[in-house]
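ugh finaly. both done.
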Amino acid sequence: MVKRTVRLAVLAAVSVVAMTASACSGSEPCAGVGVTSHIGVMFLQRGYTDLAGASFELCAGGKCVRDHLEQEDITQVDLRLSDDVGPDLGTVRFRVTPKGSSHPEIDASSEVKLTRQSDGCGGGAYSGGLAFTKEGGLTTKIPPSVSAAWRKHLKSLA
């Protein structure tokens, strides 16, 4: 019985090492496996009238994501980018068009440089974050009001 238990423990350990090695080509565990290139916008809706159902569009690097907003204080919009994207993303464009309208209420753009995130295994991905507020527009500098609204949002989900 002891030999069987030891043999199962050894098999389990070998399986873990094999999975780690196949994911990272090394024997060290890789904390960041699955890191993806993306750009995100934290949209603080304060100062706008009812945007529930409004459509949004976030475009960068030749890709776009489109969806509809819910009525909430802050919304996070993410766009997955190509794996081969580099630090010089270029222009990011964010548009919001109210429900029933054909003209955007928000049409903002900003030049963005991405930051590399390592996966801990020799690979990684480029990503970046922006904020949009009525007062400040689209910016790579996250205002304290956006950070506070995001913290409040996360606490409400807990």
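ok and the 2nd:
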Amino acid sequence: MSLTDTHAMTLTPTAPGRWTTTAGPEWRNPGGGLWGGYAIGLAIRVMEAEPEALGEPLSLTLTYAAALPAGELDIRTRRLRQGGSIGVWEVEIHPAGSDQVGVHAIVTMARRPSTPAFAFASMPAAPDPESLPSPDMMMPGASQHFGAQAFERRTAEGFPPRPSTDSRSLAWVRSRRGPWDKALLGMVTDNSAPRAFYALGPTVSTTTLSLTVYLHASSEEIAAMGDDYLLIECEGRVGGGGASDERSSYWSRDGKLLATSEQLAWYRERRREPPE
């Protein structure tokens, strides 16, 4: 079985720059639309399959224009520019047979050269993941919601979210779907609770507007992790006028920064029905 089959993202080419796939119901959020992380993984997976693309995904920015339904999807890829080492591509994901864009992505592909490495950031301190309770012990049934069926998450601090002055959370996460790769690493960047919950509590509804992922680690470095845990540090900075932001860092157990992400979410208070 290929990694594409393992991740339930079997791609069928229908014409140059045109693909189809089937998103199973397991990728749906409780609200009905597909989990945002699925679109991230799909954009990476289709670029890995695109025969005209050179290198590997380095960064991508997704705009969530409309909710995607589970079921048949159409994907379109288009090269915007190709240089010696860097290529820029556009990816659109549509409901099958529709011209309405559900998710739009700009993907930067790169042939990674050998250059001196450096790092200013350092991994936050966290207890070993094996010392933390499993999610099935803390929240039975949680593996069925919000993409958690793809990942096992062990919280070190900051979960479940409660209104406070601190939005920071730390969690160890590993894949339930085989060894890490770029698609799975991209998908996990949409696996943290909305930061609006840390300010206002669960009385708000939220949806992602845009999300940018920077995949610092190479494909080989990600593959070397196998199925080990990675550490996610997530925090929000500001919210107002319906929009809130968050940023996250993703670390290997040995302290290598694998990826970073920035997300803008739309939030609003849920209407409270008056008592009868």
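summary for the 2nd one i guess: Residues 36-49 form the longest helix (14 residues).
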